[in-house]
Specification:
The complex is a heterodimer of chains A (about 230) and B (about 80). With about 230 residues, chain A is of the alpha/beta class. Chain A is built from 5 helices and 11 strands; from the N terminus they run E-H-E-E-H-E-H-E-E-E-E-H-E-E-E-H. In chain A, a hairpin with a 5-residue loop joins strand 10 and strand 11. The two termini of chain A are about 15 Å apart. The chains are: A alpha/beta (about 230), B alpha+beta (about 80). Chain B: One of its GO terms (cellular component) is cytoplasm.
């Protein structure tokens, strides 16, 4: 399975994402510049964190119109796994691949620390490696992670089990219903504010994020590799 | 040529944490008459005349990029600049 890590001007978690996939997961991975017009040959797409285009106008608003995003949307429509972390999540929201929007953190502060997440749905291609309701520790690092959507959208997220991760005990940013990560209706696009790629090795404080990547690969192998 | 002023603010239904912080600061300065503060963005665009009506073009730009209509409202004022 081969992953693309999309690199925008201002991405700064791209190397962590690459490392997680290459060295910890052991899969093929390549950086793809935002100007590229094709994602042929890639089985999964990773949108890393950072400050694409300096967060000008709104986080993710300008990145959303880069050439490669047309291909990311095509990949999402084709059912390929698409993971957006932090700024990647914000870009997926701006692109309309996921519902809702981000507001400034309630505290108005940039927060950067490990947080506890609860796995609300372990029936997705991103979370099947976790136990249902398992509490995991993953770092957050953002100034705008205060998720918002209207009541109708929230009801639909709940009804379709699209809320995959919520903040456990402490909500660091004020997000609606403690939401930390959601999928699209089809379940192949996940956006989350916490950084699983920063939690892939006990040496750097925890490996709870690795199962997320392993879940994607497991799903892909089961549907693509015969007699594996 | 048109000079267009675009104002983008958080929707009434969306809590504005920055506006709240400023309101509290104003209250602490004894401006107790302030009941609400909303912080937004102000953009100035210069737009050449084209075949499409300028209102239509500006509205489209607001909807697609300048505002995120999930959480933001926008309004705009259009002035025709006098040719030199």
């Amino acid at each position: 399975m081969k992953f693309a890590v999309i690199v925008f001007p201002g991405s700064n978690c791209d190397i962590d994402m690459y490392h997680a996939v290459k060295d910890e997961l052991g899969c093929d991975v390549e950086y793809v510049w935002h100007d590229e017009k094709s994602l042929d040959g890639f089985d999964g797409v990773l949108l890393p964190g950072g400050f694409s285009y300096g967060d000008y106008l709104r986080s993710g608003a300008i990145a959303r119109f880069s050439h490669v995003m047309k291909e990311v949307i095509k990949a999402a429509e084709a059912g390929k796994p698409v993971l957006g972390v932090c700024n990647g999540f914000q870009i997926l929201l701006e692109a309309g691949l996921l519902p809702g929007a981000m507001r400034r953190n309630e505290s108005l502060k940039f927060i950067c620390r490990p947080v506890q997440l609860k796995v609300e749905n372990n029936q997705t291609m991103f979370s099947q490696g976790y136990e249902q309701d398992e509490v995991i520790t993953i770092p957050v690092a953002h100034g705008e992670g205060n998720y918002y959507c209207d009541e109708v959208t929230l009801a639909s997220l709940k009804e379709n089990n699209q809320i995959v991760f919520t903040y456990h005990d402490v909500n660091p940013n004020g997000s609606l219903s403690n939401i930390a990560g959601i999928t699209n209706k089809a379940g192949n696009v996940l956006g989350m504010m916490p950084h699983p790629e920063r939690a892939v090795d006990e040496l750097i404080g925890g490996a709870d994020g690795l199962k997320l990547f392993q879940s994607i690969v497991k799903q892909w192998r089961e549907s693509h590799v015969v007699n594996a | 040529m048109y000079k267009v002023k675009v104002f983008v603010t958080l929707r009434e239904s969306v809590l504005d944490p920055q506006g709240n912080a400023v309101k509290h600061s104003l209250h602490s300065m004894n401006y107790n008459e302030v009941s609400d503060v909303r912080i937004g963005k102000y953009l100035e665009l210069s737009i050449e005349k084209s075949e499409r009506p300028v209102e239509e073009v500006v509205k489209e730009m607001c909807e697609r990029l300048l505002a995120n209509v999930v959480i933001e409202d926008y309004r705009f004022e259009i002035e025709e600049a006098v040719a030199q």
